[in-house]
């Protein structure tokens, strides 16, 4: 992984954040930077990109074009839900179907950093390179936050949205400049801002979901079939663990199969690992102490509802040395 040398950005802590002033300042800065030109941004529905969409919308109105990139690796019904939510807020969002491009870029890759790099390249170079060219925009607004920068700079994991801090000249490589309005804030501050911007609880309180989406939860090669399995497992895990108050929960599909038995016959099947985290800031995390009965119900649901699953495990290692996502 390419390692960056320095972080020049200083954090604005929750206690130092004046939301009114911050919003005003960012809106003015976006306007000044974009001038009378156009900007684009990608909305994933997470709190960071939702806040940036609202700031950009306030600053630029129709001169901001917001896209939801359907990359094929999102959770069940996610594209439709996000589009419906923003339609209610009066913010137009265009759906871009890029499923084929993402799966083609991921084909044959098993190394985690190569998978992350393939997603980054497809997103920024292929999809956004094209959208920027088509629209005539010169700027991309995105929701990079302070923790993303810190972890990438430390060389822990290449967060999909880190570009300049890794020495990437976006103008030269992708044909546009990147504007990052929340780069000095960590998640709790971004959530406060989301509330101040009038976004609903389902957005300001939304559990984090990674940019590389379900691809971060498939060990080994990412294929449409494996994504479908992890998507269904994710739906079940999120439903069962929704009321635990955990920071984040997830299903991970392992690459190796194990021997199981179904209807008295050998079933060489899939393994799902469940992770559920208590954390304040995602920098460190502990597995949530889940009731045994709840885990047993979850295992029953996973083995009966997800085709081919014969084994379910619960991760009990902390971060560090684990990371929250498997890839
Ligand atoms: P890790 O796996 O690094 O995750 O312990 C820490 C938190 O960050 C999320 N995550 C990401 N978020 N882009 C993101 O926007 C990424 O590339 C990415 N990788 C991990 C993860 O879900 C957890 O909340």
Widest β-sheet, arrangement of strands: 3-2-1-4-5
The poorly predicted ranges are none
What are the secondary-structure elements, in order, as H or E?
HEHEHEHHEHHEHHHEEEEHE
The best one-word shape is: globular
Helix-and-strand structural type: alpha/beta
The profile of the biggest β sheet is: 5 strands, parallel
Beta content: 15-25%
Distinct ligands, ions and cofactors found in the model: xanthosine-5'-monophosphate
Number of strands: 10
Radius of gyration computed on alpha carbons: 20 Å
In short:
By secondary structure, this protein is an alpha/beta fold. Helices cover 40% and strands 17% of the residues.
Structure description:
The protein is of the alpha/beta class and 327 residues long. Helix content is 40%, strand content 17%. Strand 2, helix 3 and strand 3 form a beta-alpha-beta unit. Helix 1 packs across helix 2, helix 4 runs antiparallel to helix 5 and helix 10 packs antiparallel against helix 11. The radius of gyration is 20 Å and the shape is globular. The structure holds xanthosine-5'-monophosphate (XMP). The site of xanthosine-5'-monophosphate (XMP) has 15 residues, from loops.
